[in-house]
Amino acid sequence: MQTNLADFIRDTREGKEADAILRSCVHCGFCTATCPTYQLLGDELDGPRGRIYLIKQVLEGKEPTAKTQQHLDRCLTCRNCETTCPSGVQYGRLIDIGRKVVSDRVAYTPVQRLKRAALRELLPRKAIFAPAMKIGQLVRPLLPSALREKVPARQASGIWPTRQHARTMLLLDGCVQPSMAPNINAATARVFDALQVQLLVAQKAGCCGAIRHHLNDHDGALDDARRNIDAWWPAIEFGAEAIVMTASGCGVMVKDYGHLLAHDPDYAEKALHVSGMTKDLSEILPDFEKELATQLAGKINKRVAWHPPCTLQHGQQIRGKVEGVLRSAGVDVQLCKDSHLCCGSAGTYSVLQPELSHQLRDRKIANLEATGAETIVSANIGCLTHLQAGTQKPVRHWIELIDDALIAAH
C-alpha cells in the first residue's frame, strides 16, 4: 500500500510505525472472512481492510468525522485478522494509533465521554473498584439486568498457600479480577504450591494498562506499565523466574511493554526484560505435565467446552496448550464451532458497544452449548463474566478445574 502521511504525524514514532504497517497491507481482504463485526454488519468499513483505509486517509490529512470514529470504535481489537493475514499486518497496533489520532480530533458526545471516563478511572483503581463491586454484589438482585450481568455473584477465594519454595514466580493480581473472581489467582497459587513453586504478588503492582490504552489514554497506560515494572523489579533481581498471567488480556498487554516503552531511556531495557519473562499460565504448566498427570489421574471426569480468548489465541498466538494440560489431566475438552471468533467481551467493548457485544455472545453461547459440555472454561476475566451472563451453565477459569482436582486428590 502506497502512503503519503501528513506532516503532523509523518516523522513521529507513531507515524513511522503506522507507515510501515500500512505499507505491509496488500489489500487481499482475507481478513474480512474472520472479522466478527464484518460478519454481523456486512460493511467493508466495519472490517479490517476498510478500517485500514480509514486510518490511512486520516493519517494522510483527511479530516475524520464521527462516522470514522464509529467504524474504528466498533472494532473489537480481537486481532483475528492478524492470525488470518498472509502479510503479517500488525493491525492491532495500527488501530490503536488510528483511534488515538481520531479521538484527539473528533469529540465524543457528553454521554460517551462520561462512560469512557468512568471506565478509565474506575476499573483500574482497585481501591475504588473493590468496594464498589462489593456493594454491587450485595444489591445484585435489585440491579437492572444490564448492570447485573456485569456484577458476578460473590465467590470465596479459598486459602492462599503460605509455604515457601526455592522456586519463585511473580503473579499479576490485576485490577478487576481480584474483586470479581478472587478464586482464580488463589487457585493458581495453590496449583503452583503443589508443584513446589511459590507465587509472589507485588503489592504495588496494579492494572496492566490495557484498559487505559484501549480507551486512548496512552500516557496513562504507560504510567501503569512503569509502576508495575518498578513493583516487580526487586523480585526479578532476587531471582523470580517468570511473571505469571492468569488473565490473557493482561498477558498480551504486559508482553507489549518492551515495544510500548522502547522510547523511554529509563525503562526501555527493563520493559523488554519484563516482556520477555511474562508467561501465560498455559505456557508454564506444560512443563509440569507429568507431575500433574500423576497427581490428577482419574480425578477430573467431565466434558468441558473450551473458549480460547482472542487475547490468547490471536494476541499472544498461543493455541493448544490449555487443551493439552486439561487432557493430560483426563478432561474431555471440546472446541466449539467457530472457536476462533470473539465472544464479544473485548475489555470495555461490552459496555460501549452492547448491541454488537450481545449478538456475538449469543452466537458463541449457542456454539459452546452445542458441544454438550457441562461446564464452559476460558482464560480471561472479561470473557468469563460476559459468557456467564448469557448461560445457565457454569463458566469457570480452566485453572479452577486443576485446583479442584488437586484438592480432591489430597
Task: Describe the structure in brief.
This protein has 410 residues and is of the alpha/beta class. It has 25 helices and 8 strands. The strands form 2 sheets. The protein has a 4-stranded parallel sheet. Strands 6-5-7-8 form a 4-stranded parallel sheet, with helices on both faces.
Structure description:
By secondary structure, this protein is α/β, with parallel strands linked by helices. It has four domains: 99 residues, Alpha-helical ferredoxin (Fumarate Reductase Iron-sulfur Protein, Chain B, domain 2, Orthogonal Bundle), CATH 1.10.1060.10; 39 residues, no CATH class; 117 residues, Rossmann fold; 125 residues, Rossmann fold (3-Layer(aba) Sandwich). It is 54% helix and 7% strand. It is built from 25 helices and eight strands. Strands 2-1-3-4 form a four-stranded parallel sheet. It has a four-stranded parallel sheet with strand order 6-5-7-8, sandwiched between helices.
